[in-house]
Design a protein that fits this description.
By secondary structure, the chain is mainly β. Helix content is about 0%, strand content about 40%. It has one domain (about 40-155): Immunoglobulin-like. The strands form four sheets. It has a three-stranded antiparallel sheet, with no helix packed on it.
């Protein structure tokens, strides 16, 4: 059985960008390296085709790999995302607007599985304001099988042209 979450599009001012407040499919694959314990992020990148242009509004994509022995759970749905970013440079601004408030059941990711997520949540916008190399950290929030809150942070670099 294949269940796919709906991908929503929101206009973001002058720049037309399809915004995936949070999109995923429960179709996962098991190509992750089970020898490494824990949760990992890989393939972290902005949504725009490189190079990201000055003035562009964008979001971050990352593949979540569950190398832990148990299932992890995280926020899923059109309004909330477990993925956010912290930018170490001054060439990205984070804007806050009114977002939606709909809730969805948590997404469960089994051991040895991976899924791609997008962030930030509805109501937060990342915008490139000047050219240059940008260092950032992706932050992924989740819960362990026992319900304990956890997160992982991983640095990534991209260029604004």
């Amino acid at each position: 059985m294949l269940v796919t979450f709906t991908i929503l599009g929101f206009p973001l001012g002058e720049v037309s960008l399809v915004r995936y407040a949070y999109s995923q499919s429960n179709q996962t694959n098991s190509t992750s390296n089970a020898a490494v314990a824990g949760v990992d992020l890989k393939d972290i990148h902005p949504s725009s085709v490189p190079p990201l242009k000055v003035g562009s509004k964008f979001e971050i994509f990352a593949t979540v790999v569950n190398n832990s022995p148990g299932t992890i759970m995280f926020t899923a749905g059109a309004c909330r995302s477990p993925l956010s970013a912290f930018f170490n440079a001054f060439n990205v601004v984070v804007k806050h607007t009114q977002g939606c408030t709909a809730t969805s059941p948590p997404f469960k990711l089994g051991p040895g599985k991976e899924v791609t997520v997008a962030g930030p949540s509805s109501g937060t916008i990342y915008q490139a304001i000047s050219a240059g190399k940008t260092t950032a950290s992706a932050i992924f929030h989740y819960q362990t099988e026992s319900g304990q809150a956890a997160d992982i942070s991983k640095p990534f670099v991209f260029t604004i042209g």
